[in-house]
Structure formats: structure tokens, C-alpha cells
Amino acid sequence: MALVWSSMALVYVFVVIISWCPFKVVYSIWWKMMIEKQLEKQGFHGPPYKLLYGNIKDMKFFNENNDQPRAMKTSHDISPLLDPFLHNTVANYGDKFVTWFGTTPRVTITDPKLIREIMSNKSGDFLKPRNSFIDLLVTGVASYHGEKWAKHRKIINPAFHIDKLKVLFHVFCHKLLPFTLKLVIFRFLPTRTNRRMFNIYKQIRSLLRSMIEKREKVIAMVDDDSGKDNLLDLLLKSSHAQVEASKNLKSGLTIEDVIDECKLFYFAGQETTENLLTWTLVVLSMHKNWQDRAREEVLQAIGSNTPSFDDLSSLKIVSFRIPFLCVSFLLLGLCSDEGLWLQPSPFKLVSSFSLGSTCKVLRLYPPVPSILRCTKMKAELGDLVIPAGVHISLPFYLIHHDPKLWGEDALEFNPERFSEGIPKASKDQTSYFPFGWGPRTCIGQNFALLEAKYAIVAIPQKFWFELSPLYVHAPWKSPTLRPKFGAQIILNKF
């Protein structure tokens, strides 16, 4: 009798699956037609949709044709290299179009005003799509939403205040000059075996847990002022302070929360800062005149001395308000959410050159060239109505290279463009999104900018550099912006 019931259950499951598959196909076709009609009414057009595949085959075709290294001019017009399919779509359909990633519609927004609206939205209309692979590698504050995001942000924020970073300055300065940092985790990360991936995931968490538990014990044993020169201690103390202030244990971070934040800071901070410094050296190697001006300015100000924190704030100081930029990895949720909004704060930058060159490199080569958001429900965006289930692509690099916003010289490297500050550098005061915008701009922005400024001052002191003949200019999303075939730079010591 049991065997009969088991057989009947299997037959039932089989019938359900067989019935569900055609229903799913029919529903997908109907839903696609409905979404396409709504978007077309609002002026969104794009490449023809192919059943179930969407435009994936077209994307693959364009990317494969661009996959091999070949000699190219070292132009800052990176759009044809970075995303050939998107570049071709813009050429054919303008700056307002829809493409299909399988059965998922993806609209591309290039209007800075609409991008600011998306990233400043605090009602949760535009969320970051979930990616289980990314979540396995890195979670933390960047991937949270709602109250959990607000809680983590509030606790972590004090650890990245500029006064705290001043204490850390001597630590990361001595680690920075070997600027070709390697992401050890990525070096051993498997790409073919899920089992190995999970083993590495467990090892990372185990190592971090052991480290955190040791620091917890030390902090509990010593006075409040000791052990304050590393980010882990600052994070743990900030969590303890939040618990004491609220008299509620749940208001602090658990060990698992701290592990997630440590992984996030390691991946995001190292990857993005490394790429920023790499592109800065590449660009200065392309433009020897600006490299010479940087060296001359630094040598006149501090000679061959090791730059201190105060030196970085005393070289032809340019003071203005700089929005909290975000050191976000692919992985980061740069968009809006309900909760805290950190207002821009006064921040003194190294010098007119350092400010200009850093901003200029970030404009031409943003660490995160584009991000995705999605609508869980129908959402209004300016005069548009975006249906539920639509992905929204925000290609920052297209906006940063747009002549309508930056002038006919948009693709030229000219640090003096930013001599009067970021708001006056373009025709639209806020069309500069190297690391995001809005309430979820990254908490580690000061740390990244401080590292970058130190490198711009310290490296030209000791070296002049040039591109190797082996260098192939091929910017690549992986998922941050990096040189696809490496950055072969020849360093020449004085």
C-alpha cells in the first residue's frame, strides 16, 4: 500500500511539473508583451527580443568580438571597450532604451536628475537586485535595507570619521606604496567548484571569528583608549557604545554582523582603492606633463620628506563641500533606502592638482562604472512610470563622458576642470557619480580618498613612471573597473 501511495505521489509531482512549465512559458510571454507595451508608450525602445533569451546572445556576440587583446590608442573613450553591446545600443536607440536580460527587462537611465531621484529615494521603490553568488562572498551594510541598514550604518559611521582615520594614517601609509596590492582571497577563489568555494567561505568566517573574539577579550580587559589604531577595534567599540547608549543588546552588532562588515571592508576597500590608484598611474603615465606638474608641486612643498597627515591638508588647500563618496565594490548597494541621510561635510583636500587629478581619474574611470536597481512594485520616476519587476541600469561612465554635460572636451584629461570644485566642473551641478549618491553613499569614502591622495603625493617623490610597450588599454568591468590585461607600468627611481 505504501508503495502505491509513493507511486501516486510521484505521478502527481510529475503532472504538476509538466503542467507548470507551459504555464510559466505562456505567462512569461504575456508578461513580456505587457511590460514592453507599457515601456514603449513612454519612449523606451531597443533591440528585438528573442524568446526566452532576450538579448543575451547579442550581448555575448559583441563581448566575444571584444575579448582578445589588440593594439588600441590610449583613448579615454572607454565606452566601446567597456560594454560594446551597450555602446552599440546607445548609437542605435539613443539614451533612452530597454534591453532584455533573458526574460527580465532592463531600462537604462542616463539623465542625472533621474539618477539622483533613484539614489535618493527613501521609500524602498528602487532596490538592489539580489545576487546569491555575491551574497556568498560579501554581505554587510551595503547589502542591507530598511531598519537593519540604518542600524549598521549608525554603528559603523564613527569608525570612519576623519579624526579616527588620522590615527590610522601611519598604518596604511606604510602599506600603501607597494601599490600593486593583491586580493589574496580572489587569488585562490575557485571558479569551477562550488564545494571549494563553500570551503573557502567557511575558512574566511572562521579566521575572522577567531580574530574578532580575541579583540573582544582585549577590549574588555583594557581601558577605553587602548587598541584604537585599527578599524576592527573602532568597529567593536562603536557597537559597544551603541548598546550602552540604548541599554539594549539588540542595538549592537553580533559577531556574525562584524564578520560580514570585515569581509565587506576588505573586499570593497582594497579592490576599489587599488583600482583607483592603478588608473591614476596609468593616466599620469599617458600625460607626462601632468605627472611633471604633480612632482614639481610636491617637491616644492615637502621635498623628499615622508608626507604626514597635516601635509596632505596644507598643500594649496582647496576647501569645499565634498559629497560622501562610496568605496563600493560591485556588490555594494549604492542606492537609496529609508533611514539615515549623511549630509555632506567640509573636507580639506590635498592640493589643487591632487584634487583635480583624483576627481578627473574618477570621472574618466569610475571604480564602479554602473549599477543595477530593480522595482518590486510600480514606481514613479520623474515623468515615467516603471512597472514592477523591471531592472534599471545606471551607467555612470556614460554620464561622466557625456559632452552635453561636460563639454566637447569631455574625454580629455584636464585636472584643472575641478579647480573650482565638483559642482562647477560640469553643466549640471550634480552629474558626477564616481561612487554613488544619496543616503547610501559609502561610509569609507574618507579612507579611500586619503589613501589616494597619499599615493599621488608619495609616488612622484621617488619615481617617474611610464607605460610599458606591453600595455594594452582595455578597461574591463570585473565587476569594478580594472585593466583587463593588467597595467604594465615601468617605474624609474630618481
Structure description:
GO terms for molecular function: heme binding; iron ion binding; monooxygenase activity; oxidoreductase activity, acting on paired donors, with incorporation or reduction of molecular oxygen. It comes from Dillenia turbinata. This is Cytochrome P450. It is found in: Membrane. Belongs to the cytochrome P450 family. With about 500 residues, this protein is of the alpha+beta class. It has a single domain (about 110-494), classed as Cytochrome P450 (Cytochrome p450, Orthogonal Bundle). It is about 50% helix and about 10% strand. The protein has 18 helices and 13 strands. The chain has helices at about 1-40, 55-65, 80, 85-95, 110-120, 130-135, 145-155, 160-175, 185, 195-220, 230-245, 255-285, 290-300, 310, 350-365, 395-400, 405, 445-460, and strands at about 95-100, 105-110, 125, 320, 345-350, 370-375, 380, 385, 390-395, 465, 475, 480-485, 490-494. The protein has a 5-stranded mixed sheet with strand order 1-2-9-6-3. Strand 1 and strand 2 (about 105-110) form a beta hairpin. Helix 12 crosses helix 15. The model is unreliable at about 175-190 and about 315-355 (pLDDT under 50).
